[in-house]
Structure formats: structure tokens, C-alpha cells
Amino acid sequence: MTAETTFTASAKIPAPATPYQGDIARYWNNEARPVNLRLGDVDGLYHHHYGIGAVDHAALGDPAHSEYEKKLIAELHRLESAQAEFLLDHLGPVGADDTLVDAGCGRGGSMVMAHRRFGCRVEGVTLSAAQADFGNRRARELRIEDHVRSRVCNMLDTPFDKGSIAASWNNESTMYVDLHDLFAEHSRFLKVGGRYVTITGCWNPRYGQPSKWVSQINAHFECNIHSRREYVRAMADNRLVPQAIVDLTPETLPYWELRATSSLVTGIEEAFIESYRDGSFQYVLIAADRV
Ligand SMILES: C[S@@+](CC[C@H](N)C(=O)[O-])C[C@H]1O[C@@H](n2cnc3c(N)ncnc32)[C@H](O)[C@@H]1O
Ligand SMILES: CC(C)=CCC/C(C)=C/COP(=O)(O)OP(=O)(O)O
Ligand SMILES: [Mg+2]
């Protein structure tokens, strides 16, 4: 193997840029919730994002059946993978020679899916050495380590050359950073004509201010959810022009309602369900062209 393919995240861990980023690195280094690991075990794609789409009640069958919980886990995982597929649908044409960036890549499930779909290179950045090691180990197991690589790196200050990246995304990772700083960095490394996509939860300016449920989600994950207005403004200020904005709130509610009935609940289900229902919080995809 070359030095490139034997890369491990823990070989050289940069110091956190801020005390907050140190907190977030610790949070994800210590994270091992069954709702994430048991879903990932279904097919080896490990996600830290939520699901979209209708629940397949026929596939779930009778709740009294001994296999029901296993089927429920598979169904939640199917909906999470459908979310990642929907994000990848919006990246535009990607060739095998292109490089994509997954900003805030978690355990790397979306990166594997992107490589399988496009045959391209995918570079992931996360604050967590445990996550980057996990993603690189999975890539080695799948023998795609020459194309899929995770590293410990601040997404606001990446090593990618100016104009070198065909498309990039944030999947539920924008709520940990200042949006102006984030979009300035994507805009720097994206090619002109390249595509940026995010799926995120944002508070709804029509509601007024962040609701108590949004505050509860922030406290639960130590994050800072932005408003929909902030996204549009920060993109406009950084040469990212929205090409599609999709309100996925109705599409994600079935996932949450199903998850709330499972043995893998974490306690945050009520906040998501109530805030989506009262309109204070929205689950959105924004795809933007780098102009
Ligand atoms: C909720 S997880 C999402 C993971 C992944 N996108 C997915 O869909 O499975 C949030 C991720 O954002 C990362 N993150 C937060 N702030 C970051 C920063 N400043 N630089 C790089 N990664 C960051 C965390 O390390 C974590 O991997
Ligand atoms: C939409 C919003 C506001 C997301 C916040 C970021 C976040 C923690 C996403 C899910 O991670 P996870 O998969 O580790 O969480 P859980 O353990 O709840 O499944
Ligand atoms: Mg999860």
C-alpha cells in the first residue's frame, strides 16, 4: 500500500481551532449510540443523519412478531440511506475523475455511497479522530481506500486547492459552524460551475425565533441551529446561488414517528416531532451552484 492508502486519522491530529471545536471532537469521539451502530450494522453504511420517505408498513409486518424489532431497525436504516441518496441526486453530473468533499463526514456512510454511484474520489473531514479512523477502516474493508478517505480537519480551513473540487456537501453538519465562514471555504475549493448541497435542520423565520424544541435540540447535540434566512443570506454572500430548495419536513416526519416507537429511542424524538409539527423547525435540502 502507498502512503496515501495507509493514511490513518490518528497519525497527525491537528489541535482544535477553538475550545468549542474541542468539545465537538470529544462529543463525537465518545459517541456510540445503538441507534447509529445497529442501523449501520444492517449493511455496513454508518450514518449520523436522519431519514426521509414513506414507511413500508408491509415490510415491517406485525409488531407482535419476534422479528419485528430487527425489521424496524432495517426500515429506519433504509430511510436514512434514502436521505443520502436524495442528497447525491442533487450533486449534478460527477465523473470518475472528479473529487468530492464531504464536510463533517461522520463515520463515512455517505462517502461510500457517493463513490459507489460515481466511481469518483471522496475526501471527508471530521473533527473526530475516532470517526475518521472508523471511516478509513471501513474503506479498507471495502477495498476502496484509494478513493475514499477521511481525515481530522476543520471544515472551515481545509487543505483542498482553490477550484479543485467538483462538488461538496454538508449532511447535517452545518449547525456546528458559522455559515459565512463555511460557505466561504466551500466557495474557495469548489470549481466555478461546481455544486454545493446541504441537508440540514433550520429554524423557521416565520415562527419568529427558535422555539423551545429547537433550543432542546441545540442543547442535546451541543450545536447551534441556524435559521433558513441565514442559509440563503450566507450563500448569496459567497457566490453560492440556490438552484433547488426542498422542504423535506413532511418527508422526515414518518421516520421520526417510527423511530419514537422503537427500542432505540434516545429521548430527542419528541423535540423533532413537535417542532416539525408546530412549524418552528424545518428539514431542508439546499443545492447551490458555485458561480
Ligand atoms: C451529525 S454528524 C453528520 C455526519 C455525516 N455528515 C453523516 O451524514 O453521517 C456531524 C459531523 O460534523 C462534524 N463537524 C462538526 N464541526 C466540524 C468542523 N468544524 N469541521 C469538521 N467537521 C465538523 C462532526 O465531527 C461530525 O462528524
Ligand atoms: C437535523 C439536526 C438539527 C441535526 C443535528 C446534528 C445531528 C446530531 C445529526 C444526527 O446525528 P446522529 O445520527 O448521531 O443522531 P442520533 O443519535 O439522534 O441518531
Ligand atoms: Mg442517527
UniProtKB/TrEMBL annotation:
Keywords associated with the record: Methyltransferase, Transferase
GO biological process, one term: methylation
Classification via Gene3D superfamilies: Vaccinia Virus protein VP39 (3.40.50.150)
InterPro entries associated with the record: Erg6_SMT_methyltransf (IPR050447), GPPMT_Stmyces (IPR049645), Methyltransf_11 (IPR013216), SAM-dependent_MTases_sf (IPR029063)
GO molecular function: methyltransferase activity
A Pfam family this chain is assigned to: Methyltransf_11
Span of domain Methyltransferase type: 101-197
Name this polypeptide is given: Methyltransferase domain-containing protein
